[in-house]
Design a protein that fits this description.
Helix content: 25-40%
Largest sheet: 6 strands, mixed
Number of domains: 2
Number of strands: 13
Distance between the termini: 42 Å
CATH class of the largest domain: Mainly Alpha
CATH architecture of the largest domain: Orthogonal Bundle
Length: 315
């Protein structure tokens, strides 16, 4: 399948640094140059079915993506007998989940200028992806890599899909629960596929924005119903004036709750200016058709006001 691939023996594994649904990731170095890389071993879930389609999609997409805020796939290597396949990525120092956990342990939070720097870079990467007709579908802290100099890299493209216009249906069972958009949470449970687009990424960015400000997850739901309730408690309960068709979607819920008519974002984030609240509100908009796009969010005046974006440099 990869006839021109080099061997994994060109790399020395140093430490296991992560494991996901579709593979295990190691810190490694190239034997010849000593350069650090990240090596992801592709998980073969069922060898009788051949090479995983998820890995093929990831490889194909990453081979065509080149952007400062997208992790770079260097090459695909195999074992001598080609029984195992590894993706070799550029090395990054850590991820945002680790950064926030470390700051939480030290009882500190990111400064607003640092939040701006991180958020703007995430949006830069998403503008590039969405302009390329690609949605990530699994944005979360552990999938945003971070270098000591403050550079952000979007990673883990195992759930990534290309989309088209008009939209075609996809499975709603995507995006880690805490970052999952309302249109995915509230869809008819009997439907195996629904139509959606880049709005699912933008909702996740809104959740990331809130988490960067708080130092902890914005909506840490225990399950799907709890996730929905937490969203309504902060943003208010949607109706057809806010999001056409939402009242019908709410009938799918098998719980009773008291509607909450107001958004409490301003109370939750008193450190944000009017521009900052507008950006967060636009990202966490219930209606995916009205939700801020990556381009609109990136061009928001929030990034032009003081304090200006300044990276968190890790010593």
């Amino acid at each position: 399948m990869f006839p021109c691939s080099r061997s994994i023996s060109n790399y020395e594994k140093l430490k296991r640094i992560g494991a996901g649904t579709y593979g295990t990731v190691y810190r490694a170095k190239e034997v010849e140059t000593g350069e650090l890389v990240a090596v992801k071993q592709v998980k073969l879930q069922n060898e009788k079915e051949g090479f995983p389609i998820t890995a093929l999609r990831e490889i194909r997409l990453l081979q065509q993506l080149r952007h400062p805020n997208i992790v770079e796939l260097r090459e695909v290597v195999t074992t001598v007998d080609a029984s195992c396949v590894f993706l070799v990525f550029e090395h990054c120092d850590t991820d945002l989940g680790v950064v926030l956990d470390t700051m939480y342990e030290r009882r500190s939070k990111l400064e607003l200028c640092q939040v701006k720097s991180i958020l703007y870079q995430i949006l830069e990467g998403l503008v590039y992806l969405h302009d390329s007709w690609i949605m990530h579908r699994d944005l979360k802290m552990s999938n945003i890599l971070y270098n000591r100099n403050g550079q952000v890299k979007i990673a883990d493209f195992g759930l990534t899909r290309e989309y088209t216009s008009p939209l075609r249906p996809f499975t709603p069972k995507v995006v880690t629960l805490w970052y999952r958009a309302p249109e995915l949470l509230l869809c008819d449970p009997n439907l195996q596929k629904i139509s959606y687009s880049t709005g699912v990424d933008m909702w996740a960015v809104g959740c990331l924005f809130g988490e960067l400000l708080l130092g902890k997850p914005l909506f840490p739901g225990r399950n799907e119903l709890d996730q929905i309730v937490q969203i309504f408690q902060l943003l208010g309960t949607p109706n057809d004036q806010i999001w056409k068709g939402s009242e019908e979607l709410l009938k799918n819920l098998r719980i009773s709750f008291t509607p909450q008519p107001y958004s409490l974002l301003q109370r939750k984030f008193p450190q944000l200016s009017d521009f900052g609240l507008d950006l967060l509100d636009g990202l966490l908009c219930f209606d995916p058709n009205k939700r801020y796009t990556a381009v609109k969010a990136q061009r928001h005046p929030f990034f032009d006001e003081e304090p200006r974006a300044s990276p968190l440099v890790i010593e």
